[in-house]
Amino acid sequence: MANSHLGDMNMPEALDETLVEFPDNRLLIELCGQFDRNLAAFEQGYGVVIMRRGNRLALHGPGDQRQRAAAGLEALYQRLESGRPVEQGDIDAVIRLGVPPRNGSEDGAAAEATPQLDMFPGGRMEIRTRKRLIEPRSHAQRVYVADLFSREMVFGIGPAGTGKTYLAVAAAVSMFFDQRVDRIILSRPAVEAGERLGFLPGDLKDKIDPYLRPLYDALGDMIPAKQLAKLMDEGKIEVAPLAFMRGRTLANAFVVLDEAQNCTAMQMKMFLTRMGEDSHMAITGDPSQIDLPRGTGSGLLEALRVLEGVGEIGFVRFTSADVVRHPLVARIVEAYDADGDAAGNPTLKAGR
């Protein structure tokens, strides 16, 4: 367990330091990262300077920033002590989220209600799947995950790279293996993203699969390949275009509708009314990336307007601050948001 304390170390007040001691040098090396790149990320994220002194780290900078950085380093060290690796995404999450309280938070209440949401050192939620543990890495993601486990219908709205679909699929896989649902159904509208692909070769499955590939990829990250193939052959996991949902009642299932901004109003109403007993639905979409023909209204935008007052439905909105892909993606989203503001065109704003 790391220990920290304040001390002047014979330095002027402007350079007061927080000293954090780590008993295991091997874990400290992992914490610092190759060529101390993890420490460099903390320095940039918190506006502090970090110096290594044996098995201790000395943090220099504004007092509140030092304390926050020290708490983040201690949380990551506890993660290493528990046998979990520290990756770049974990560092970004600590810097962005800070270290939430262990008790009394809304996330803690969700964790008590659902065994799949555990509070680990640093106050993190983790979703268990067959291949990996998946953690929300921003405040909005934490709220989203809590809603996915506690509400029957949740809308996740925001720009690309914010984990909307990935976390929804993770929750579906988690609930399936926890026997809370009997099957998983993942769907997308088959709409071309600004291209004309023409007549694709092959049978119906060959023509449709390119549209559904992101959903297959997410499943492949969470379920071993042989087990996934078996479950799909048995019909317990289904990946299908939205058009295939018509006329069905989806009971005791976790259903994810991805790219919902490309549904028409009629398709969205059709999908939402498929919900059966003991089912959960997650609807994800990015209103800034509508690929419908000109003049065709987005069913997602209409659903947000019509259903906003329905208290049982969860609505979580993501922004560029929640982007968990390459950091450049967040800057790209922010640039488009700024351009949308300048042009007075709300459809260009990613997260609206």
N-to-C SSE string, H for helix and E for strand: EEHHEEHHHEEHEHEHHEEHEHEH
* Rg for CA atoms: 23 Å
- What form results from the Cα inertia axes? globular
- Poorly predicted regions are 4-14, 100-124, 193-197
Overall pLDDT metric? 80
Give helix % range: 40-55%
How many strands, what sense, and barrel or not for the largest sheet? 6 strands, parallel
Number of helices: 12
Structural category: alpha/beta
**How large a portion of the residues is in β-strands, by DSSP E?**
15-25%
The counted number of beta strands is: 12
User: Major sheet: order of its strands?
Assistant: 9-8-10-11-7-12
Straight-line N-to-C gap: 43 Å
What does this molecule look like?
The protein has 12 helices and 12 strands. With 352 residues, it is an alpha/beta fold. Strand 5 and strand 6 form a beta hairpin. The longest helix is centred in the first third of the chain and has 19 residues, at 63-81.
Blueprint of the fold:
Elements: E1 3-7, E2 17-21, H1 25-32, H2 37-46, E3 49-53, E4 56-60, H3 63-81, H4 88-97, H5 106-113, E5 127-128, E6 133-134, H6 139-150, E7 153-157, H7 164-177, E8 183-188, H8 204-222, H9 225-233, E9 237-241, E10 253-257, H10 265-272, E11 280-285, H11 299-307, E12 313-317, H12 327-343
Parallel strand pairs: 7-11, 7-12, 8-9, 8-10, 10-11
Antiparallel strand pairs: 1-2, 2-4, 3-4, 5-6
Helix pairs in contact: 1-3, 2-4, 3-4, 5-6, 6-7, 7-8, 10-11
